[in-house]
């Protein structure tokens, strides 16, 4: 693994149920990419070999939220990237806690 991102998508929504519905659509999109991901209560972590691919996924997450009905969406993204070599994987970071 050469890159990972953690993304928190915060769509504008009229109520909690609608907010959760929109976020669920974003998570479904992330899972559809086929990349290793871990859903948490505040953010979803995604691992990949291509930094550019992960950045496109992050951008598409926002578009998915808008298509799902959010008039506005904010996203907070954390990135780890090592173009030469490996990074710590999700399992290496949290596997011992499962």
Summarize the structure.
This protein is of the alpha+beta class and 98 residues long.
Structural description of this entry:
This protein is of the alpha+beta class and 98 residues long. The protein has 3 helices and 4 strands, in the order E-H-E-E-H-E-H. It has a single domain, classed as Alpha-Beta Plaits, CATH 3.30.70. Strands 2-3-1-4 form a 4-stranded antiparallel sheet. The longest helix is centred in the N-terminal third of the chain and has 17 residues.
Compile the SSE list and pairings.
Blueprint: E1 3-11, H1 16-32, E2 37-39, E3 44-48, H2 51-67, E4 73-81, H3 90-94
Average pLDDT value? 97
What is the tally of helical segments? 3
**Helix/strand structural class:** alpha+beta
Poorly predicted regions: none
Instruction: Please report the first level of CATH classification, the CATH class.
Output: Alpha Beta
Radius of gyration: 14 Å
What is the CATH-assigned architecture? 2-Layer Sandwich
User: How are the strands of the largest sheet arranged?
Assistant: 2-3-1-4
Shape: globular
Number of domains: 1
**Strand element count:** 4
Strand content: 25-35%
Order of helices and strands: EHEEHEH
Distance between the termini: 21 Å
CATH topology name, in short, is Alpha-Beta Plaits
Described by strand count, sense and barrel closure, the largest sheet is: 4 strands, antiparallel
Descriptive terms for the model:
alpha+beta, globular, four-stranded antiparallel sheet, 4 strands, 98 residues, Alpha-Beta Plaits
